[in-house]
Amino acid sequence: MAAEALMKVAALDGPGVSRIIEKPLPLIAEDYVLVKVLAAPMCNEHLAYEHWDFRDRNRWDSLGHEAAGEVVDAGSGSAFRPGDRVVVLSGYPCGRCALCTSGRYAHCEDTEDPLTVSGGESGECGFAQYMIKREHLLIPIPEGMSYEHAAMACCGMGATYTAMENMEVAEGQTVLVTGLGQVGLGAVINGRARGARMICAGRSPYRRELARELGADLVVDMTDPEALSAVREFTGGSGVDRVIDCSAQAAYQRFGLDAVGRGGQVTFLGESGELEIHVDRDLIQKGVTLHGSLDLYLQHAPGMLDVIARSGALIDRFITHTFPLDDIEQAWKTQLTKECGKVVLHPWP
Question: Is Iron among the key words of this record (predicted)?
Answer without folding.
Answer: no
